[in-house]
Amino acid sequence: MKRRRTTLLAITALLAAALTALPTGSAQAEEVEQVENGTFDTTTAPWWTTGNVTAGLTDGRLCADIPGGTTNRWDAAVGQNDITLVKGESYRFAFSASGTPQGNVLRAIVGLSAAPYDTYFEVSPQLNVSGDSYSYTFTSPVDTTQGQVGFQLGGNAAPFTFCMDDVSLLGGVPPEVYEPDTGPRVRVNQVAYLPAGPKNATLVTDAAAKLPWQLKNASGAVVAHGRTTPRGVDASSGQNVHSIDFGAYRARGTGFTLVADGETSRPFDIDPSAYERLRLDSLKYYYTQRSGTAISDDLRPGYGRAAGHVDVAPNQGDGEVPCQPGVCDYTLDVTGGWYDAGDHGKYVVNGGISTWEVLGTYERSLYARTGQSEKLGDGSLNIPESGNRVPDLLDEVRWELDFLLKMQVPDGQPLAGMAHHKIHDEQWTGLPLMPSDDPQKRELHPPSTAATLNLAATAAQAARLYRPYDRAFAAKALDAARTAWAAALEHPAIHASESDGIGGGTYSDNNVTDEFYWAAAQLYLTTGEKAFQEYVLDSPVHTADIFGGLGFDWARTAAAGRLDLATVPSRLPGRDKVRQSVIKGADRYLATLKAHPYGMPYAPGDNLYDWGSNHQILNNAVVIATAYDISGASKYREGALQSMDYLFGRNALNISYVTGYGEADARNQHSRWYARQLDPDLPNPPRGTLAGGPNSSIQDPFAQSKLQGCIGQFCYIDDIQSWSTNEHTINWNAALVRMASFVADQT
Ligand code: 9MR
C-alpha cells in the first residue's frame, strides 16, 4: 500500500502548530522520514526478523507467522535498525497492524538496537483481525545512530499471523499539544462533603473581582449563595483562581451543584455514607492484590482470577526462588504477599510501609477519640477469612506479613536474619499479563539493611496487634523482629543498588537512620524494653524536624515511628514533646493548606510534584488528622477533611483520583491485570483504587509524549501506559485507607 501523502501530514502539522500557537513552532525543522521502506510495496528489506519468524509480502503489507509459547515479547520480533534519533526532537511513530486470530498483543517500540537496549517509546496494543492504525508522538531523550523500530510479538500463547503496513517514524514534527478535558471550571469534591464539615471549592476564572456563587440542590433550587474570594494565580496549576467557602450550609442531600461565573460544577453529595464505603473499598483493594492464591469471583464479582506465581505453567512459581546469580546458593519459599502495584514484583521495603499504615489504621481505631474498631472487624471486608473471629483488616495484612517473614535470610546462611530486598521477574514484562500467565524466572535480590528494618518494624508492630487473636503468631513475629534488628545493627549499611531496576523497581534508599528509628520505636512500643527506648531517645531522628513539605513515604519512614510514639500508649520519657512535634508538623501543613487556593496540604519545593504525589497529600493529611486525635482541636479535623477534596476533584484536572468515586474518575491505572484499556475482557481497577497522581518528572515515554512542560497539577494522565503518573500501589492505597477511615470516623 502506498504511504499516505506526506504533504497532508505536513499541512495537518502546520495547522496544529498555528492553532495552538506553539512558542517553539516557528523553529520546527522540516519533517523527515526515518524509516526505510515502511510501505512494503515490492520488498520487506531492510526489515529483519528473529530466527523463529518468517516474514513475506502479502497484498503490499509485511505479514509474518509468529510462533506461540515464547516467553518474552522480544523472543519473536520484526524490526529495523540504524535509525538516527536526535535528542529533544519530536517524532511521530505511526503504523497499521493486524493479528489473526484476535487478541494477541504487540509491543511496538522505538529504542536502542544495542545493549542496554533502552526503550524510548513503547506501546502495547491488542491486535485486531481487521487491523487498526496507530499514531503516537514522542520526544527522543537521546542522540543515537543506533536506534531501532521494533515490533515485538513474543509471549503470546498460540501461533498467529501478524501483518503491518505504513510504518513511519517522522522526525521534526511539532511536539504534541495535549489538552486534557477538564470540564466545568467550578471544581468541587465530586464525591461528598460531610454535613458537619468544611465545604470548599475552587473556581478557575480570569475575573479579578469577587463573583457571586450559588449552591443548588438536586431539583435546582438555590439553597445558599455568597461571593467568591479571588486568590490570584495559583503556582501549582498556573491558573487564575477564586475560592468558594459554603461550609455554613449543613443540610444532607445528594446531587448538589455549585454555580459560579456561568459554570455549573459536577454534582456532589453532602452526606457521610461515601466515606463509610471508601473505608472498606480502599481496604478491599488488598485482597485482589494477593499473590499465591486464586481470587474468588464470588467474593469480588468481575475480579476472580487464577492464583499467581504458584507452580502452574507458565508461572515458574514463588515456591523455590533462587537468588540472582552470585547472590546466594539457597532457594526460599516466598509465595503469598501482595503484588506491589501494576507489576508482579514483591518488595519488602514498600511492603513494610504499606503494612505499617494499614495496621496503623487499625491501631488508631483502638486509641483515637473517634476510632471505631468494630468497623474494621470480622466480616467487614468480604475476604476468605471473614467469619474467623479475627478482624478482617488483620486477616488481610497477615497475608503480607507471612510473606515478609519468608523473605528473612535463614539461620546458618551468610547474612542470616537480614531480609532480602525484593523478589521479582528477571525481565520487565509487557501489558496486559495476568499474574498466572507470567512466564518469567523469579529471583531474590540481595538482602538490604532497609528491608531488614522494614521487617523489624512491621513484625514488631504486628506482635502487639495480633497478640489477642494469635499468640503463637505474635511470638513468632516478635522473634523475627528481634533477629532482624540484631542483623541490621550488625550490617548497618548494606544498601540496595540504584541500578538494580531490571524486571522490577529499585526502591533503593541509602539513608537508613530513619528506618533504624522506626524499627526501634516499634520494638519499644511492643516490648517497653530499655535498650529500644534508649535507641529511640538517642536517635537524632527523634528530635529532628521530620514533617517537611514532601511528606513521608517508603524511603522517608521517620514519621512511621514518630506518629506511633505520639499515639500508642507507652511510658516513653518526654512523650509530651513527641506529641507536640506532631502538632507542630500539622500546623505547618495546615498553613500550606490555608495558603493553597486548591486547599491541600502540599506545596512541594519548586512546584516539583513527586512520584505518587496523591499519597503524599494523604500522608500530610494523616499528620494533621493525628494532631486532631492528639489535641481534639477542630482546626485539625477540618484541615484533614478538607485535604480529601483535592483527591476527589477539587483540582486543576477536575478528576477524582479514586476509581469508582466521583463523576469523572481515574480508571486506567497502569496494571498488568486491570488492563481494560488494552483488553476489553479485563476489568478496570476495583472501586477504591488510588492513582499515583501528578509527577513532574514524567519518567514514562507516554507521559513524556503528552505532558512535556506540564505545570504541577497538570503532570498526570489517566492512561494505562503512564506508569510514572498513573500506577496504583499498595503503599499509596494504604494512605487512602488511613484517611478514609479517619473521615468515616468523623460522622
Ligand atoms: O513509587 C516509587 C518511586 O518513589 C520510586 O522513585 C520508583 C523507583 O524505585 O519506584 C516507584 O515504585 C514503583 C516500584 O519501583 C515498582 N512497582 C511499581 C512502583 C510504582 O510505580
Explain this structure.
With 747 residues, this protein is an alpha+beta fold. The chain folds into 3 domains: 22-171, Galactose-binding domain-like (Jelly Rolls); 186-271, Immunoglobulin-like; 274-745, Glycosyltransferase. Strand 15 and strand 16 (222-227) form a beta hairpin. Strands 1, 3, 4, 6, 9 and 11 form a 6-stranded antiparallel beta sheet that branches. Strands 13, 15, 16, 19, 20 and 21 form a 6-stranded mixed beta sheet that branches. The radius of gyration is 27 Å and the shape is globular. The structure holds ligand 9MR. Ligand 9MR is lined by residues 340-341, 343, 345, 504-507, 611-612, 723, 727, 729.
Topology (SSEs and partners):
Layout: H1 6-20, E1 32-33, E2 48-49, E3 54-58, E4 61-66, E5 77-85, E6 90-100, E7 107-112, E8 119-123, E9 132-139, E10 144-152, E11 160-171, E12 186-187, E13 192-193, E14 200-204, E15 212-216, E16 222-227, E17 229-234, E18 239-245, E19 253-260, E20 263-264, E21 268-270, H2 273-284, E22 321-322, E23 331-332, E24 346-347, H3 348-367, H4 392-406, E25 419-420, E26 422-425, E27 442-444, E28 447-448, H5 449-466, H6 471-490, H7 513-527, H8 530-538, H9 540-543, H10 558-567, H11 575-595, H12 613-631, H13 634-647, H14 701-707, H15 730-744
Parallel strand pairs: 13-21
Antiparallel strand pairs: 1-11, 2-5, 3-4, 4-11, 5-10, 6-9, 6-11, 7-8, 7-10, 12-14, 14-18, 15-16, 15-19, 17-18, 19-20, 19-21, 22-23, 24-26, 25-28, 26-27
Helix pairs in contact: 2-15, 3-4, 3-5, 3-15, 4-5, 5-6, 5-7, 6-7, 7-8, 7-10, 10-11, 11-12, 11-13, 12-13, 12-15
Ligand 9MR is lined by residues 340-341, 343, 345, 504-507, 611-612, 723, 727, 729.
